[in-house]
């Protein structure tokens, strides 16, 4: 499955200035080499790695949701 990530998420890989120049001249999406690298970096190779990534994301979500609920937001 191909994943598409917005350019700003992976821009720091090569530097924002360099990415901006490439994007200005080539396309309106993520530079394909950077996209491929990001996909590889975010693609877990084992079930254990996948579960570890999901746990980190779930913990971050829980922190945000709990914080907003403590402010009275109905989430």
Can you describe what's shown?
- The protein has 75 residues and is mostly helical.
- The protein is 67% helix and 0% strand.
- The protein contains four helices and no strands.
- The chain is flat, with a radius of gyration of 17 Å.
- It starts with 6 loop residues before the first helix and ends in a 5-residue tail after the last helix.
- The model has no long low-confidence stretch (mean pLDDT 75).
In short:
With 75 residues, the protein is mainly alpha-helical. The chain has helices spanning 7-10, 16-26, 32-42, 47-70.
Q: What is the ordering of alpha helices and beta strands?
A: HHHH
Terminal Cα separation, in Å? 31 Å
- Helix tally equals 4
Mean pLDDT: 75
| Residues in helix, % | 55-70%
Structural class, by secondary structure, is mainly alpha
Radius of gyration: 17 Å
Main sheet record: none
DSSP, total strands: 0
**β-sheet strand percentage:** under 5%
Detail the poorly predicted runs: none
Backbone shape: flat
Features:
about 80 residues, mainly alpha, flat
List the helices and strands and how they pair.
Elements: H1 7-10, H2 16-26, H3 32-42, H4 47-70
